[in-house]
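Input/output pair, single chain:
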Amino acid sequence: MNTVTWLARLTFILFLATISAIPARGGAPLLEDAGVGAYRDASTLFTSSFFTINPEMVSCGVEVQVPADLAPDGQSFMLTMLMHATEIERYDVTRQRESGKIQVVGTMRSITQFDELTMEDAEHPFVAIAVDDQSDRFDVHFATPFWGTNNPFCTPSDVEEGLCRFGGEVSLGDVVVSIPEPSSMALMLLGSFLTLGFVRHRRHLTLFHSKSNEPVGRR
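Output:
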């Protein structure tokens, strides 16, 4: 088997190996630079709340039974809040070897209810941050006339002073920041480059041997 034939076969094998390594897209859709699930921490009184974060939508849903000792009038009530983006201005993804982060800036609508009484329906700026790590995390930071740092139910933001925060470690679901894999085209180009290099090298050796074998009088 000559060198060119061997390299051609090697390039074809690299192509097949790359195709087989690409994950199948069939079945359940895969998360890519996005997240969905449930989180909890002190901001939700350790009650599971739900979120989505992707280039098309950021949303957060909170429903917490506020105990009587935390209620203003001493009567337990249900705090319900629905938040969803109305405009996404920036969707920044930071990729690292072992972790990643998604940070979204935009405008969202928030509806707050105490039991069935609507306390506020407002549109406001927000910053949402999702972290893909050994312990995934989601937080949304915002402020409205109702949700300010003077509100006893506000957990102060650790990102920007004057904002409130809902968030916590993801207890169900996932945040995925993808790490680009070498494409089949890149490997094919690499294989072609190697093949071309070896072909040129082989031609050089052939010309060298041809000249070396010429009679002295012809040189």
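Strands lie at 34-40, 49-53, 58-66, 77-95, 100-114, 117-132, 137-142, 155-156, 164-176. The longest strand covers residues 77-95.
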